[in-house]
Design a protein that fits this description.
By secondary structure, the protein is α+β, with helices and mostly antiparallel strands. The chain contains nine helices and 20 strands. Strands 1, 2, 9, 10, 11, 12, 19 and 20 form an eight-stranded mixed β-sheet that branches.
Length: about 375
């Protein structure tokens, strides 16, 4: 390591930060991951659907399209190797009215362009043969989609980083960094025992605070820090038996995939997330939001009983777009964007960031020339 405390420092110990640390550790680097919270994965990574996405929707040639498909394949293999629980249950994308059937055709074509395996079009009868309680005009099946234990996954990543001689430093907020003459960085960390350390390379993957972290790096051009938007998503849990074995998704809404159904690994049914833009992270689940959920869900599950939904949890997504604006791609910015050698800054890593995380780590390493 020559004169550096660490070969690399990663800011943020969510799924993506830990996956970046793992990718660097696999290349023989000694890595420190700094996390402001007292445990790993307490932000975006613990407040999502835990869905492994097939990669159906994302625009041709986008980072999301490429990294979701690659990351999903890597993720199943990683889960197998590390005994992380998952259920490759498959997903049905459903058209609940005739006006949505054409959208299924477009999604199927995009999925094939994106090299998603096993996609097929189903008639109403074929879909209902798989899921008898489902109401739809037609459907697509994505057999590679599933759900998994995201926290078990993050613990396995942490274990790999530590086994390679690295460290995950909890309750250690990133306070700032200064590029050093001749390369590398001085990194200032806070917490109960503030410290300064040096590293050759720096990766920032702190989710909701990506813009704030970038602004704390000396010399990072303000014009290259995208505006932050916070997209809250609320979830409701079903009281009673889960009606479907597979994930059920209506066609995507503007800026998100929309309220969907999943049966979690414990066998319970959860619906969500919706999309509400908020000024700051806010995790309240307003009970009155259930009214909209009942209306929406009954389009594909008319049998939803009155009073069966209870508020569960909310997540906040680090969005790079506001209401009614198109959803942009991931930002994985190297020196060609911000001009700072040895730095990769991640912005807007929302869905499918969890599925893509191992591939995002590989991409960040590649952009560091590794």
């Amino acid at each position: 390591m020559a004169d550096f405390d660490f070969d690399a420092v990663v800011v943020g110990a969510g799924a993506v930060g830990l996956a970046c640390g793992y990718a660097l550790a696999r290349r023989g680097l000694v890595v420190a991951v700094l996390e402001q919270d007292a445990a790993i994965g307490q932000g975006v990574s613990s407040r999502n659907s835990e869905v492994i996405h097939g990669g159906l929707y994302y625009p041709t040639g986008s980072l999301k399209a490429r990294l979701c498909v690659t990351g999903r394949r890597m993720l199943y293999a990683f889960c197998d190797a590390h005994q992380v629980a998952y259920d490759r249950c498959g997903k049905l994308v459903v058209a609940t009215g005739p006006e949505e059937v054409e959208r299924l055709d477009a999604i199927l074509e995009q999925a094939r362009v994106n090299d998603v395996e096993g996609m097929a079009r189903l008639s109403r009868a074929q879909a209902q043969a798989l899921e008898p309680e489902l109401a739809c005009e037609a459907a697509l099946i994505s057999p590679q989609s599933g759900v998994f234990d995201s926290h078990g996954y993050m613990l396995a990543l942490q274990g790999e980083i530590e086994a390679a001689g690295g460290a995950v430093a909890l309750s250690t907020p990133f306070e700032g960094a200064t590029p050093l003459d001749g390369g590398g960085f001085e990194v200032r960390a806070g917490g109960a025992e503030p410290t300064t350390l040096t590293c050759r390379r720096l990766v920032t993957a702190p989710g909701l605070s990506a813009q704030d972290v970038a602004a704390r790096i000396e010399g990072f051009p303000a014009a290259q820090i995208p505006e932050a938007h916070f997209g809250k998503g609320r979830y409701f849990r079903l009281q009673g038996r889960a009606p479907f074995a597979r994930l059920i998704y209506p066609p995507p809404i503007q800026g998100a995939l929309g309220v969907h159904y999943r049966r979690d690994l414990g066998g319970q049914a959860v619906f969500g997330p919706d999309l509400v833009f908020v000024d700051a992270p806010d995790y309240t689940v307003e009970p009155e939001a259930a009214d909209g959920f009942y209306r929406y869900i009954r389009r594909f599950w008319p049998g939803l009983p009155d009073g069966a939904l209870s508020p569960d949890y909310a997540g906040v997504r680090p969005k790079l777009h506001g209401p009614d604006e198109p959803q942009p791609d991931f930002r994985i910015d190297g020196a060609e964007v911000h001009g700072i050698a040895g730095l990769v800054a991640l912005f807007g890593i929302e869905s499918p960031g969890l599925t893509s995380s191992l591939a995002i780590g590989e991409e960040a390493a590649a952009r560091l020339g590794l």
